[in-house]
Amino acid sequence: MLTNREREVVRLIALSNKEIARELGITEGTVKVHLVNIFAKMKVRNRTQLAIAAAAIALTVALPAAAQPFYGDPYDAARANQWRYLAPNVYRAAPPPLAYAPLPPVVIPPPVDPPPPVPLGWVYRYYAPCADPDCSTLVVSVGADGLNVRALPRGPVMLSLVNGTPLIPMQKDGDWVLVAPACALVPTWTWSWTAGVPLSVCL
Fold first, then answer.
1. Which residues have CB under 8 Å from 31's CB, separation 6+?
2. Radius of gyration of the chain, Cα coordinates, nearest whole angstrom
3. Do residues 181 and 169 make contact, with C-beta atoms less than 8 angstroms apart?
4. Strand pairing of 166-173 and 176-181?
5. Residue 48 exposed, middle or buried by CB count within 10 Å (0-12, 13-18, 19+)
6. Does the chain have fewer CB atoms within 10 Å around its N or its C terminus?
7. Environment class of residue 81 by beta-carbon count within 10 Å: exposed (0-12), middle (13-18) or buried (19+)?
8. CA-CA distance, 128 to 179, in Å (whole number)?
9. How are beta strands 198-202 and 138-139 bridged, if at all?
10. Does the predicted model carry a pTM greater than 0.90?
11. Does residue 58 register a pLDDT over 80?
């Protein structure tokens, strides 16, 4: 086990005996005595082996300023903490790490239900059978040029839909169903012969 003074000598092992003596305020002879004891305790033969052994057991070895890499950012604690500077124009000890403000917690908004579909009008239910077992979707299937969509049950015709147009049922009134389009509709620039209104088709 090294004494505190021997640890100080090991920390300065990259310097000459004269420089170590001046740094610690002791004589060169005392430095040599410490080195002989350290070599014996660490089971090494020279200063290079001592520096390697000291690094292996995590003893801090101070390097001369000329041997120290300088990254241009002495405030980076992750790098600066690896070195103990001796030159007066650089740090002798690692600077404190920078303090960063904590990030605010991430708030995930709750899922928002999509808005209900906009009603298109009323259709005769026998011309728009169910497209699935739950009858959540209807599909236009009529033997004429299109299925008339009315403003009210048995009311005036507003437009006509071509066969295969999917619809969403919203309300029933006897044989009539209020529907919304299950797709974006565009006019075909043709007209229903029976009602004289434009035919529309899915985009």
1. 9, 17, 20, 21, 24
2. 44
3. no
4. antiparallel
5. exposed
6. N
7. middle
8. 10
9. unpaired
10. no
11. no
CA 156 to the chain's CA centroid: 56
Inter-CA distances, 199 with 118, 149, 153, 166, Å: 19, 10, 19, 14
Side-chain half-sphere CA neighbours of 48 within 13 A: 0
pLDDT at 70 (0 to 100): 46
DSSP string, the chain: ---HHHHHHHHTTTS-HHHHHHHHT--HHHHHHHHHHHHHHHT-SSHHHHHHHHHHTT---PPPGGGS---S-TT-HHHHTT----STTS-SSPPPPPP-PPPPPP-PPPP-PPPPPPP-EEEEGGGS-BSSTT---EE---SSS-EEEESSTT--EEEEE-TT-EEEEEEEETTEEEEEESS-EEEEEEE-TTT--EEEEE-
- For residue range 73-112, list pLDDT tens digits in order: 555 555 555 544 444 444 444 555 555 667 778 888 888 8
Angle of helix 17-24 relative to helix 4-11, nearest 10 degrees? 130
What are 18's two structure tokens? 């004269």
Torsion on CA atoms 27, 31, 32, 35, rounded to nearest 10: 170
CB 158 within 8 A of CB 121: yes
